[in-house]
Write a structure and sequence with these properties.
The chain is an all-alpha fold. The protein is about 75% helix and about 0% strand. The protein is built from five helices and no strands. Helix 3 (about 50-70) packs antiparallel against helix 4 and helix 4 (about 80-110) packs antiparallel against helix 5. The longest helix has about 30 residues, at about 80-110. The chain is globular, with a radius of gyration of 18 Å.
Length: about 140
């Protein structure tokens, strides 16, 4: 009779560790993005575009630290490498931030859609684009030990 081996949830998720961590921290940064947007747009009566930009900045700061240290485990040690990594991250996030603003302005300001609904839709699109850029460009596999 074969002996059954017990496999833990952690062991089952190991092949998907990076994606699970990215989704977890992405959800955290998305929550910050939505909370800051809602606070600024509805709570402080700021413009939609300004609220979106401030929400994006807050989420970007959280995302850089969590992506670099926990998700992609970048171990670049030289200052020049770290600066290049940060600049790549910022360039990518500026592009996806502009995409976020464009979606929000088009959907909310021009099509009179719900701000929070479109913020969620926009964040889903942005999170997917950011994962692809982070995995294959910013925190490349060859840069990890």
């Amino acid at each position: 009779m074969k002996k059954k081996t017990s496999v833990t949830i952690k062991e089952r998720l190991q092949p998907y560790r990076q994606i699970v961590l990215y989704l977890f921290f992405g959800a955290c940064s998305m929550a910050v993005n939505i909370a800051v947007y809602s606070l600024c747009f509805a709570g402080m009566d700021m413009s939609n575009a300004a609220s979106t930009v401030l929400a994006w900045l807050a989420a970007m700061l959280i995302a850089f630290v969590t992506n670099r240290d926990f998700v992609f485990e970048s171990r670049r040690s030289r200052s020049s490498e770290r600066v290049a990594e940060l600049l790549s991250f910022l360039a990518c996030r500026l592009l996806t931030g502009a995409l976020d603003v464009a979606i929000m302005v088009a959907a909310v300001d021009y099509l009179s859609g719900s701000g929070v609904f479109w913020k969620i839709v926009s964040n889903i699109i942005v999170v997917i684009a950011n994962y692809i850029a982070s995995k294959f460009w910013i925190f490349r596999p060859g840069d990890r030990e």
